[in-house]
Amino acid sequence: MKKLVLPLAVLLLLGAAGCKTTEANYRTAYEKAKEKKISEKDEDDDKLMDLQRPRMTAFGADTLPVRSFYIGYTRDGGADKDHSVVKGFCVVVGQFKQVFNARSMRQRLIADGYADALVVNDNMKNYYVVATTSNNAHQASLDLERVNADKKLVLKPPFPYVLLPGHLHRR
């Protein structure tokens, strides 16, 4: 029995030594994992961007780029849930992660003649700057034209678009 134990122990030690992770093996595994993560992230980002992209929606004779989600009211944003400042069609001209930046854009809009400008937020803590708010799609269409024609506003896609606040458009 002793003759069998010694050769088995030697084989186990040699086998364990052969399984050592080398830097090259580690780097190869790391690069594969990194590639996989990047490709998965790209797919997730594409899905998220698709959800955030406004959809062209017809409202009678007017067709508008529209998004709809539930909003919250930002302190010092020009609106709160106790007042009816926010109407069913809001023309959004900016989105920020920092409330300070959204409030600054709102102040510039007010100075440029958009007296109804306000800031709202979503549940992901994104802050949206609304230039105008109206009760009907036709007025929202006119507001979109005004915003698009305003040379003081430099907007990049997907802005401007019309936000249909979720709490006002429940089905």
Short description, anyone?
The protein is 43% helix and 23% strand.
Question: Can you walk me through this structure?
Answer:
The protein is α+β, with helices and mostly antiparallel strands and 171 residues long. Helices cover 43% and strands 23% of the residues. The chain contains four helices and seven strands. The chain has helices at 2-18, 23-52, 99-111, 137-149; strands spanning 55-59, 62-69, 72-73, 89-96, 118-121, 127-134, 161-165. It has a seven-stranded mixed sheet with strand order 1-2-7-4-6-5-3. The longest helix has 30 residues, at 23-52. The protein is elongated and about 95 Å long. The mean pLDDT is 83.
Itemize the secondary structure elements and their pairings.
Blueprint: H1 2-18, H2 23-52, E1 55-59, E2 62-69, E3 72-73, E4 89-96, H3 99-111, E5 118-121, E6 127-134, H4 137-149, E7 161-165
Parallel strand pairs: 2-7
Antiparallel strand pairs: 1-2, 3-5, 4-6, 4-7, 5-6
